[in-house]
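Example S7 (structure tokens).
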């Protein structure tokens, strides 16, 4: 597993990610394996994140949406 925390552009369908672009490559979502929310405080700012564990053509990846946009957080080997 690799921890990345890199910004990504996400296409949505029915309020869930359907594809995303990372490092100039398009990753299509085959299946949403899991979805959950987390809330925390970072530097005194309340932040809510919506996480998605996704199966793509290149394997399992975890992304999240926060008030700052979409991020790719983990790529599983």
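Recovered sequence:
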């Amino acid at each position: 597993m690799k921890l990345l925390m890199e910004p990504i552009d996400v296409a949505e369908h029915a309020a869930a990610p359907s594809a995303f672009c990372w490092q100039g490559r398009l990753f299509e979502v085959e299946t949403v394996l899991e979805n959950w929310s987390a809330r925390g405080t970072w530097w005194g700012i309340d932040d809510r994140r919506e996480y998605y564990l996704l199966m793509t053509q290149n394997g399992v990846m975890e992304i999240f949406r926060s008030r700052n946009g979409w991020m790719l957080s983990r790529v599983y080997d």
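Notes on this example. The chain has a mean pLDDT of 93.
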